[in-house]
Automatic annotation (TrEMBL):
Family: Belongs to the peptidase S1 family.
Organism from which the protein derives: Micromonospora halotolerans
Protein name in UniProt: S1 family peptidase
Region ranges (Disordered): 385-417
InterPro entries given in the database record: Alpha-lytic_protease_prodomain, Pept_S1_alpha_lytic, Pept_S1A_streptogrisin, Peptidase_S1_PA, Peptidase_S1_PA_chymotrypsin, Streptogrisin_prodomain, Trypsin_dom
């Protein structure tokens, strides 16, 4: 099955339940995050700029400009793909990362591409036709010999590439011919590649499977994390790098796909960051898919942070254990100990390490499973770093962001405690955050909402009311604590909401009470 059609752009949030909006408490899954790394002025962590500078031989300014261009290219490609329809032949950035090329099957569409700031490239086949050719190869994948390492759509050459071992070109051609695909749409190239899953690995923090094999955390999701499917099967138990019991594999797919979902226990809190293996972390602020040619960085415990560029999407790899489709091909190196780990383009999550060929001494090729497909297939919410609020002025108060026109005023009521329809407790500390109720969200039919937090003795907190906007949660009201309480009131439309309690100073148990009318 060609799973490229299933890949979504942006952050996917699972809104549990499809019933009409009701008053409290109709809960669905969600969880808090925090940022633990300094962020450059353009929103990209300095560690990412350092890694790009090192591995792509760029200055920090060149790396920052490249990332800015890539963000523009991502949005432009999304727009043009919708406008060009069947005439869209794919897109890729030039080797220097400054030129966006867009292939068109109809010459009349070239002017539209030029007007968008990209360079049109005339091709014979649209990307949908290339994907159809690859789908036929996928269907015949069981007939591929070990001499065939895999195949992928190469939009820059307007063809589907079959990768064969040196001296095995004939085997690659026989495989393509046996699948019945048009000869002109396929080309065979040789490469000394023997992809295999990178077992016994981590991408972010290490974890252990059944007290034996070791893999890596890919990205945090509400309730757990995603990783490589070859790392474990449903029911397998995990322990963290500290060997403390961590969670259980809830879902896994390998071969065919290479993804898995681990649900963690209450001792573990998913955070929207990736270990930079340089004493810090970098934030994850979304999952917008980067185009072919974009820079990408991988985090792994064996070789640390390594960067390169995306070479192709919708690639199929013929592992010894079976064929995996829908992967993204890169020129980033990896070694055993790096599997399952996180791939970032800037601050945007891209995927989890599947497998590869070569090593970080002589170079290699590595494939990752796109993260958006994992999120979509499993109805998961990516945990992102979000914005850490600054301390409010003394005396508290509340503000509303531009997307909310609701007036926000201090609520009337008891000045010494918090009451409401729903009450939750939690433990907070400086620099940490929790989403309530119980890491989830609730639905209301509109009207006034009131929230109040009774902070621990000597602690300062911020209380945020956030509304789901279709891609993420946005803060619509915020109040800082004064005299141990943080209160807010806001008039809000119908929708899905959550409260976020952020610690600014001190630590201890807090109580949140809230209601909606």
């Amino acid at each position: 099955m060609d799973r490229r059609r299933m890949t979504a752009i942006g952050v996917l949030v699972a809104a549990a339940g499809t019933a009409a909006a009701v008053t409290l408490p109709s809960f669905a899954g969600e969880n808090p995050t925090r940022r633990t790394a300094p962020v450059a002025s353009d929103g990209v962590a300095p560690e990412v700029l350092d890694a790009l500078s090192r591995d792509l031989s760029l200055t920090r300014d060149q790396a920052a400009r490249r990332l800015k261009t890539e963000r523009w290219a991502s949005g432009t490609v999304t727009k043009l793909r919708g406008e060009l329809g069947a005439d869209y032949g794919g897109s890729w950035l030039g080797a220097d990362g400054t030129t966006l090329n867009v292939a068109v099957a109809d010459p009349a569409q070239a002017a539209r591409v030029t007007a968008a700031g990209a360079v049109p490239k005339r091709v014979d086949r649209g990307v949908a036709e290339l994907d159809a050719v690859k789908t036929r190869l996928d269907a015949a994948g069981g007939e591929a010999t070990p001499d065939v390492a895999g195949w992928y759509v190469d939009v820059a050459t307007n063809s589907v590439v079959v990768v064969a071992q040196p001296g095995a070109e004939a085997a690659g051609r026989r495989f393509a011919e046996a699948s019945g695909v048009p000869a002109g749409a396929v080309r065979v190239r040789t490469a000394d590649e023997a992809p295999r899953p990178l077992f016994d690995v981590r991408g972010g923090d290490a974890y252990f499977i059944n007290n034996a094999g070791r893999c890596s955390v890919g990205f945090s999701v509400v309730g757990g994390f995603v990783t490589a499917g070859h790392c474990g099967r449903p029911g397998d138990r995990t322990a963290g790098a500290n060997r403390v019991a961590q969670g259980t594999f809830a879902a896994s797919s390998f071969p065919g796909d290479d993804w898995a979902v681990v649900e963690v226990n209450g001792q573990w809190t998913p955070q929207g960051v990736v270990n930079d293996f340089n004493g810090g972390t970098v934030p994850v602020n979304g999952s917008t898919e980067a185009p072919v040619g974009a820079s990408v960085c991988r985090s792994g415990s064996t070789t640390g942070t390594r960067c390169g560029v995306i070479q192709a999407k919708n690639a199929t790899v013929n592992y010894p254990e079976g064929t995996v489709t829908g992967l993204t091909r890169t020129n980033v190196c990896a070694e055993p100990g790096d599997s399952g780990g996180a791939w970032l383009s800037g601050d945007q999550a891209q995927g989890v390490t599947s497998g590869g060929s070569g090593d970080c001494t002589r170079g290699g090729v590595t494939f990752f499973q796109p993260v958006n497909e994992i999120l979509q297939r499993n109805n998961l919410t990516l945990v992102t770093a979000g914005a850490q609020p600054s301390a409010p002025p003394a005396g508290g108060g509340a503000t509303a962001p531009p997307e909310s026109t609701a007036p926000v005023t201090p609520p009337a009521g008891d000045a010494t405690d918090c009451t409401g329809q729903v009450s939750r407790t939690g433990r907070i500390a400086a620099g940490r955050a929790q989403v309530q109720p119980d890491g989830r969200f609730f639905r209301v039919s509109g009207g006034a909402q009131e929230g109040c937090v009774s902070a621990p003795a000597g602690a300062r907190v911020v209380l945020e009311l956030q509304r789901f906007t279709g891609t993420t949660f946005r803060t619509v009201a915020r109040a800082g604590s004064a005299d141990g309480l943080a209160r807010l009131t806001a008039e809000t439309p119908a929708g899905a909401y959550r409260y976020r309690v952020v610690g600014l100073a001190g630590a201890g148990e807090y109580t949140l009470a809230f209601s909606a009318r």
